[in-house]
Amino acid sequence: MASSPVAIDLGDGKPRTLRFSSGALRALERESKKSVFQMMEEAQLLTTTTLFLWAGLRTETPSLTLEEVDQLVDAYMLSGKQYFELLEPVMEALVEAGVLKRAKSNGNGANADPPATPGPE
Questions:
Q1: Maximum CA pair distance of the chain?
Q2: 110: buried, middle or exposed (CB in 10 Å: 19+, 13-18, 0-12)?
Q3: d(CA 95, CA 89)
Q4: What is the DSSP letter of 43?
Q5: What is the mean pLDDT of the chain?
Q6: Which of 7, 46, 78, 112 shows its CA 20 to 30 Å from the CA of 13?
């Protein structure tokens, strides 16, 4: 499962990327004890978003812990950003991994379909 990494700015000045390799997705399911698709239904929950961040960031930093992700999220929010803004790069990285379908454009710059849905492109 090769996918392009997605840049994410967590406000700490360090360039980071999210990428959901098959190993990252397995770690996510193992940690949450749920399938990725069950977690997608709970994406608005803080715990779920944090778990997605943890799994996606671990592809480049395998030793990253959930507690360290919590610290990164705290720094992100202290920089004046909103927690829900973290969902956009997570969803984009899931599209890149082929877990979600890319939304289709209707030709005028607007999406013809809902943002992203489970399934291959």
A1: 44
A2: exposed
A3: 10
A4: T
A5: 83
A6: 46
* 51-86 confidence digits (pLDDT tens): 999 999 998 999 999 999 999 999 899 988 888 889
Amino acid at 50: T
* Alpha-carbon distances of 18 from 3, 86, 110, rounded to whole Å: 10, 11, 25
C-alpha distances out from residue 39 to 14, 62, 75, 79, 121, Å? 28, 21, 24, 27, 19
Please state, in angstroms and rounded to a whole number, the distance separating the CA atoms of residues 85 and 39: 18
d(CA 111, CA 82): 24
CB 36 within 8 A of CB 9: no
Backbone angles phi, psi at 101, to 5 degrees: -80, 145
Residue showing tokens 């790069």? 89
> For 90, phi and psi rounded to 5 degrees?
-65, -50
Nearest to 77 by CA among 49, 115, 40, 41: 49
Residue by residue, DSSP assigns 72-107 as HHHHHHHTT--GGGGHHHHHHHHHHTTSEEEPPB-S
